Amino acid sequence: MTSRSSDAANKKRVIFCDFDGTITENDNIIAIIKHFNPPGWEPIVDDIIGQRKSIQQGVGELFRLLPSSMQSDVTDFAISNARIRSGFDELLAYCRANDIEFYVTSGGIDFFVNALLAPYGIPADHIFCNGSDFTGERIEITWPHPCDDDCSNDCGMCKPTIIRRFPTEQYTRILIGDSVTDFEGAKLADIVFSRSHLTTKCVELGLPYHEFNTFHDVIAILQQEEANVR
C-alpha cells in the first residue's frame, strides 16, 4: 500500500491508465491473436511477458503474422469482443469533479482503442496508443510515441516518456495497469493500482501498490488518499 505524503496536497493529481486488460476486462491484442490463431504466436507472447523480447519487437511480430486483407475481420472482432471494466464511467466522472487529469496510456492499437473509447468523451490529445498500417501485405504496427533519451526499453508506446512530462514536484502521478507495458511506468509513479502481471512485478521489485478489480475500487482508494492529506 502507498499513501500520499503531506506535500502532496499542493500537487495536482494526474492518472495514466492502461487500456488492454485495465480499461477493458481482457487483453485485446492477445484476444485478437488467439482468435485468428496464426502459426507461431505463442512463443512470441511468452517472450514478451518474459521480457526476452521488447514490447515493440514482439507486438510488431504478432501483427505481422496477420495479412492486411483481414483488416475488417480483425477490427470487428476486437471491438465486439472487448468489455469495458465496471466503474470506468464513474472514474472519469470522479476525475472531472476533482480536477484530476486523466490520460489513456496504452500499448494497444488505434483501430480498437479509439473506437472503444469514442463514447466516453476523452480528448484525443489525452489518448496515447500505437498506430496501424494496413497498406502492405501484412499488418504493420506503427510507433508514434517512442522512448525518450532516458528510456532504452524499446517500449513501443513509451509510458515513462509520457509520465516524465509531468514533473514529480508538481504532480502526484498515478498509474493504473495490469501487465508488461506498465512495468517501467510503475517505477516512476507515486501511486500504483495494479492487477495481474503488474501486481507480480510490483511484489518482485518491492514497489508499493493497490490491487484492484474494478474502477470502483480505484475511486474508493483515491477518495481515501484525498482525505489523508486534508
UniProtKB/TrEMBL annotation:
Name of the protein this chain belongs to: 2-hydroxy-3-keto-5-methylthiopentenyl-1-phosphate phosphatase
GO MF annotation list: 2-hydroxy-3-keto-5-methylthiopentenyl-1-phosphate phosphatase activity
InterPro entries named among the record's database cross-references: HAD-like_hydrolase_phosphatase, HAD-like_sf, HAD-SF_hydro_IB_MtnX, HAD_hydro_PyrdxlP_Pase-like, HAD_sf
Keywords: Amino-acid biosynthesis, Hydrolase, Methionine biosynthesis
Pfam families found in the cross-reference section: HAD
Enzyme Commission number(s): 3.1.3.87
Reaction catalysed by this enzyme: 2-hydroxy-5-methylsulfanyl-3-oxopent-1-enyl phosphate + H2O = 1,2-dihydroxy-5-(methylsulfanyl)pent-1-en-3-one + phosphate
Similarity comment: Belongs to the HAD-like hydrolase superfamily. MtnX family.
Pathway in which the depicted protein is active: Amino-acid biosynthesis; L-methionine biosynthesis via salvage pathway; L-methionine from S-methyl-5-thio-alpha-D-ribose 1-phosphate: step 4/6
CDD domains for this protein: HAD_Pase
Gene3D superfamilies associated with the record: 3.90.1470.20, HAD superfamily/HAD-like (3.40.50.1000)
